[in-house]
Amino acid sequence: MNRRNNDTEGTDLSKINFRTFTNIRPVHHVVFAYEKDMTIIVQPGKIDCFFHKVVADEIIDIEYQVIDSTHGDLDISFQMADPTGRMIVADFKKPENSHRHTATIEGDYRFCFDNSFSTFSKKTVFFDMLIEGEEPEDRDYDDDKEMELGNAAETYMMRVRDISESVTRVKDKVSTARRLQELHSAHEARDRNLAEDMCTRVLKWSIGHVVLMLLVGITQVIFVKSLFEDTRNYRKLVPGFSS
């Protein structure tokens, strides 16, 4: 993954991090896809942007969620823009969301996570992006093979196609299951962070209340004790003091 800085109209460049997706792996073949899932930390007052090249008619499927925050709410703003800069999606301060868009033009699409509204809170964001497209089927080999072997091989070729389709379906299901497991893991991480944060808050409040109770108890003991102290020593020290 590479990081770069570009000019963005109307935006403070010091607050934006630009990144480009690389080393994206193919998931399956007949309907091919590129998938990328990442967990990033968006600093307070900053915008993290990612770019990925998309071909026309490919489907962009992106899902994100905020799984941790140092202070405040679990929310983030999100924007998706096409290569011309036209805004396609704009979410403002949402904990999670998903979007599906069919690309109309080819080029580098921009995906930005905006934490500029936060002053002190940095956000941990998990997102999963899937780019789907139709891959042209190469049937020349099958047709040539059938013509070469004749009608006797028709049954064999049909079985080969059936096996190929079955394998492709299995790979699709496995890929979908893996993606759902990753999203479930992100949900689990968010819930765990919320539980740990709540536990920390309860512990701090409990310690504060215990300390306050001890201080109040000590103050009461000192005050009650002072009511029963003998003041005759003060009479000797202070001339003219009388009861």
Number of helices: 3
The biggest beta sheet is recorded as: 6 strands, mixed
Give average pLDDT, whole number. 77
Number of domains: 2
Query: Which regions are unreliable across 5 or more consecutive residues at pLDDT < 50?
Result: 1-10, 22-30
Name the beta content range. 25-35%
Describe this structure in words.
The protein is an alpha+beta fold and 243 residues long. The protein is built from three helices and eleven strands, in the order E-E-E-E-E-E-E-E-E-E-E-H-H-H. The chain folds into two domains: 2-194, Jelly Rolls (Sandwich); 200-236. Helices cover 37% and strands 34% of the residues. The longest helix has 74 residues, at 154-227. The protein starts with a strand and ends in a 6-residue tail after the last helix.
Quick summary:
By secondary structure, the protein is α+β, with helices and mostly antiparallel strands. The chain has helices spanning 140-149, 154-227, 232-237, and strands spanning 2-4, 16-20, 25-26, 31-42, 47-54, 59-69, 76-81, 87-94, 96-102, 107-114, 123-134.
